[in-house]
């Protein structure tokens, strides 16, 4: 049986991978086995109105309601719900720091501190306009603090701005409510406003974030993999906390779609540094133990963000998804989840970029398909170790439960710990 594929995206890293395997391309109206689709195509396909029923030998690259993880407002809502549920269960994971009182915000976060011992995954965040009064109450505890505004449904840095005065927010609110002949939906768009991480870890005086790729083949049980060849994205201008640089997005936003328009942008390396080189730099400047702890914390953050959305995700066996995680590291080497992208860019801005993204797609196909390379929903979705390529297993709840059942009869000294990532991230 020859695999027949369909794709909304005419990206060389996709098509060359498919053609290398001898797959045949068809249109969306024809019979296909493997569909690399845009998010809107996926929503249309799974909508009740479409009446489309997928067959056992078909697979697609998005879960029906992926937006529970990738919409900024829903991500925060699901993480907050996850915390509350663990608190009710009395889970030690939801343990709070001993500090409490004046600094504690309405969403359970402590201003400028660490509210949870383990589950402080995202900065203090509110959804506007719904949470406006709660935001104002939080803001007034630390006046002149900096906050970042992001439209919930946009990406690539579009519509983002920083504020450090309530007057600026009120001005935005008035302008967004005014009618617009060009964009009548403007007034109805929701934003998230998050405490700005104003103490980012800097390299060469510049701010950066991590772009990591996380592959999920199932949400119940959760099966997640981390691509080890992620990279850092750097700002082109040195970081500056002064108020006159608040509107300079080349200082604050790491998105390549923003930085490539700057005069300091380097088209050879694209303002990027590999995760491996970041690790070497940190081991040399901070030490191996601290660096190992940071990367372990990043894995922890990813796993629990996925666990937070797993109960509400439509877990269709025809689906898999590769998410683009954006993570900021502060100067105390604490990682913060900034956002998750449903369709991380497959555009290659440099030679190394193209090599990385070609490997990413190649490895994804090897992990999500059975050993014979033919999509089949009856497969148990347990790839052989050699099929992982540059992916490492973050968590397979099915395998972990089997390991626990087998080890329960063994002496405690010989039991394996299946709670965290199965491999060291190197």
TrEMBL record:
Predominant subcellular localization, coarse grouping: cytoplasm
Catalytic reaction equation(s): (L-glutamyl)(n)-gamma-L-glutamyl-L-glutamyl-[protein] + L-glutamate + ATP = (L-glutamyl)(n+1)-gamma-L-glutamyl-L-glutamyl-[protein] + ADP + phosphate + H(+)
Superkingdom of the source species: Eukaryota
Gene Ontology CC, one term: microtubule
Biased composition range(s): Polar residues: 403-413
GO molecular function, one term: tubulin-glutamic acid ligase activity
Every ATP-grasp domain range: 326-369
Lineage of source species: Eukaryota, Metazoa, Ecdysozoa, Arthropoda, Hexapoda
UniProt source species: Ladona fulva
Family to which the UniProt record says this protein belongs: Belongs to the tubulin polyglutamylase family.
PANTHER family: POLYGLUTAMYLASE COMPLEX SUBUNIT TTLL1, TUBULIN POLYGLUTAMYLASE
Family matches, as Pfam families: TTL (PF03133)
Subcellular location: Cytoplasm, Cytoskeleton, Cilium basal body
UniProt entry keywords in alphabetical sequence: ATP-binding, Cell projection, Cilium, Cytoplasm, Cytoskeleton, Ligase, Microtubule, Nucleotide-binding
Span list, region Disordered: 403-426
Subunit structure: Part of the neuronal tubulin polyglutamylase complex which contains TPGS1, TPGS2, TTLL1, LRRC49 and NICN1. Interacts with PCM1, CSTPP1 and LRRC49.
GO biological process, one term: microtubule cytoskeleton organization
Official protein name in the record: Polyglutamylase complex subunit TTLL1
């Amino acid at each position: 049986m020859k695999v027949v594929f369909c794709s909304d995206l005419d990206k060389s890293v996709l098509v060359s991978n498919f053609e290398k395997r001898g797959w045949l391309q068809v249109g969306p109206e024809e019979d296909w086995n493997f569909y690399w689709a845009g998010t809107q195509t996926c929503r249309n396909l799974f909508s009740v109105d479409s009446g489309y029923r997928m067959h056992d030998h078909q697979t697609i690259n998005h879960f029906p309601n992926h937006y529970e993880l990738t919409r900024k407002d829903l991500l925060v809502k699901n993480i907050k719900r996850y915390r509350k549920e663990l608190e009710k269960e009395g889970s030690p994971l939801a343990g709070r720091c001993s500090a409490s009182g004046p600094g504690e915000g309405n969403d359970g976060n402590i201003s400028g501190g660490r509210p949870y011992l383990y589950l402080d995954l995202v900065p203090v965040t509110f959804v506007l306009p719904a949470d406006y009064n709660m935001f104002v109450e939080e803001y007034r505890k630390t006046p002149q603090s900096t906050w970042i505004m992001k439209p919930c449904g946009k990406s690539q840095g579009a519509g983002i701005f920083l504020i450090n005065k309530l007057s600026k927010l009120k001005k935005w609110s008035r302008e967004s409510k005014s009618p617009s002949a060009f964009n009548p939906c403007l007034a109805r768009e929701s934003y998230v406003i998050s405490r700005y991480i104003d103490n980012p870890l800097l390299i060469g005086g510049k701010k950066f974030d991590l772009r990591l790729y996380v592959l999920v083949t199932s949400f119940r049980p959760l099966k997640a993999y981390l691509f080890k060849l992620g990279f850092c994205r750097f700002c082109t201008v040195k970081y500056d906390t002064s108020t006159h640089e608040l509107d300079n997005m080349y200082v604050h936003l790491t998105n390549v779609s923003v930085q490539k328009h700057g005069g300091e942008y380097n088209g050879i390396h694209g303002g990027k540094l590999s995760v491996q080189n970041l690790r070497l730099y940190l081991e040399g400047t901070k030490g191996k133990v601290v660096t190992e702890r940071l990367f372990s914390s990043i894995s922890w953050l990813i796993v629990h963000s996925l666990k937070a959305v797993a109960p509400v995700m439509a877990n269709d066996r025809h689906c898999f998804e590769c998410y683009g995680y954006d993570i900021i590291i502060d100067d105390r080497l604490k990682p913060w989840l900034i956002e998750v992208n449903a369709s991380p860019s497959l555009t290659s801005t440099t030679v190394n970029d193209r090599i990385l993204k070609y490997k990413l797609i190649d490895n994804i196909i090897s992990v999500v398909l059975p050993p014979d390379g033919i999509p089949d929903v009856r497969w148990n979705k347990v790839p052989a170790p050699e099929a992982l390529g540059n992916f490492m297993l973050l968590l397979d709840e099915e395998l972990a439960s089997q390991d626990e059942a087998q080890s329960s009869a063994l002496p405690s000294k010989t039991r394996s710990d299946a709670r965290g990532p199965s491999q060291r991230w190197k």
